[in-house]
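REQUEST ID: PR-0412
SUBMITTED BY: lab tech R.K.
PRIORITY: routine
TASK: structure prediction, single protein chain
INPUT:
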Amino acid sequence: MESGDIGDILAVRGTNRGRCPGGWFIQKELSGGGAVMDHTVHVTDLLRFLLAAECSTVYCEADNGLLHGDFDDTGFLQLSFQSGVFATLDASWSRPKTFPTWGDVTMLVVGTKGTVEMDMFAQESILYSDIAGNVSYQGWGSDIDGGMVRAFVHSLQTGEPVPITGIDGLRAVEVVEAAYRSTATGQAVAVQHRQV
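STATUS: complete
OUTPUT:
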């Protein structure tokens, strides 16, 4: 994408579908929401990085038709960015308990010269275990969580800035807030970016 091989980016289709984690995730007074809160922030981070642009408007439909709780378990978002690119996102807890991993993160990036498909959890082997009585993915790729911790420790040790800042987290949460406002009104809403 940085080399321009796929041309100008026109649109992105993203997913972040997982299993309902239960616990405090489904208590709105503790989590702030449900699947839309849980899954939108991660793809928003990726989109902001890939597009080097802020999200300007959000349209979201969310419901609780799968688990029938007092929280959203499915959400579908349409995001428009200041650069003119638009993206869709399936943010849901739609994976069954028997799914081999807790979820997925995928992106299909459409450009004027080609497309790129990404599966962020594709580095795995599949284990069929009669002992555990299930199928699971055994990751062999890089440890993303470990990388975050190493980057933070490196910053503390060297004084260099962290690669991901609190402002990055704030911008992702602002998109989630807009998604919930959109769900409540049934309309696309502007993302309200706070001055920092």
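NOTES: The radius of gyration is 18 Å.
REVIEWED BY: pending
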